[in-house]
Amino acid sequence: MRYTTVKTAWGWVAAATGEHGLLALVLPHAAEEEAVNALFARVGTASVGPDPTAFGDLPDRLVAYFRGERVSFAADAIDWTGTTLFQREVLSAVRQIPYGEVRSYKWVAQCINRSRAFQAVGQALKANRLPVIIPCHRVIYQAGDLGGFREGHALKEHLLTLEGVTKASLTREAAV
Mean pLDDT across the stretch 79-97? Predict the structure, then answer.
């Protein structure tokens, strides 16, 4: 595993890459050391060490994203090590939600042909190691309420606002 840290407008982000692609990403922290510690808590400390060259232009795209620019992470390879087939299905469906749009937990469940599994979808999203890259913050309750987010409700709302999602549009967009 290799990792890097990125200074963004919101603070320090840390990312890890495995043998097959991105393994984990930690959302902004006030200090670089805090971001690295949070990353290691998520993936362990057995690593090759810091290596920003292993991430291509991802650091630049993260900086742009946290400045409020429309950025795509759809082409980034993901290392699915340690995830279940169900989690991969859910996270792959969520990865298709466009920037600035939201979908409901029910929509995700229907995408993976498990229309009654929306609570299990929530649990799979809770296990997402790559927030923003796999935009679980774009999944909300069908009624337009924000729903859960491992990083906290306020950060979920802040990320959606950054992408231009307004409270008035949540109910309309969740029905999609």
Answer: 96
